[in-house]
Amino acid sequence: MSKVSVMAALTTTDMPRPSRGGRPRDPSRDGVIRAAILRLLADVGYGALTMDAVASEAGVGKATIYRRWRTKQDLVVDTISDLNRAEATPPDTGSLEGDLRQMLRSLVTVITGPTGAATLSLLSTMPHQPALAEAFRTGPLAVWRQSFEEIWARAEQRGEVRPGVASSVAAETTSALLVQRWLLTGKPVDEAFADEVLDTVVLPLIRVNTPS
Asked: Engineered SS bond to 44: which of 48, 70, 84, 212, CB 3.0-4.6 Å?
């Protein structure tokens, strides 16, 4: 079960992203506000989240929040849509093994941090909020998928894997076991586990598909 398949299964209806409206943002406050949103989502969940609580948690005036977002859904959708863009930037170590190891460790950081906690709190909400599910599908899920695809494409250009491996089951296993442990078992997801998955599962599967 991959991160994409787990999350994408929650999305049954495509909806356009709501317009935020309001005045232009002060970018210097965006990071503080987004961090506050993630903390509150992890602590109280989507249902209990309020615009006023976000303002208080972020230490900004209520008008600052309401100028940026008209509704709570707008606020959360906008935050979700921009998640993981920095964390999922694909490395270029010169080898597939090095790139995958760094990517999996970046994924561990996301899973075990505020973003992971907020995501868990939203999983039960998304089937009832199609706009949130769509934001996940076109936001963080797309970002991670594109980054992994770039890594596989470079490996193919270097001759490390045969053409088409990027869409294979072997490639899908790269993040699947981490996501499964995170979402379903509650067991720790750390760098040691990520390295074990890479060394004992992913790389052996890739070697089977490596040109001789």
From this structure: 48
Asked whether the CA dihedral 30, 75, 138, 103 is positive or negative, the reply is positive
Residue 8: count other Cβ atoms within 10 Å of its Cβ.
16
pLDDT digits (tens, 9 = 90+) for 102-136: 999 999 999 999 999 999 999 999 999 999 999 99
Q: How far is residue 46's CA from residue 144's CA, in Å, rounded to a whole number?
A: 24
CA 212 to chain centroid: 35
Q: Which fold has domain 12-81?
A: Tetracycline Repressor; domain 2 (1.10.357)
CATH superfamily, with its number, for domain 96-208: Tetracycline Repressor, domain 2 (1.10.357.10)
pLDDT, tens digit (0-9, with 9 covering 90-100), for 50-94 = 999 999 999 999 999 999 999 999 999 999 998 888 889 999 999
Q: Is the pTM for the entire model greater than 0.70?
A: yes
203-211 contacts, C-beta under 8 A, 24 or more apart: 203/97, 205/170, 205/173, 206/96, 206/160, 206/161, 206/165, 206/170, 208/170, 209/161, 209/162, 209/165, 209/168, 209/170, 210/160, 210/161, 210/162, 211/159, 211/161, 211/162
Domain boundaries, the chain: 12-81, 96-208
Instruction: Tell me which residue of 140, 94, 93 sits closest to 115, measured CA to CA.
Output: 140
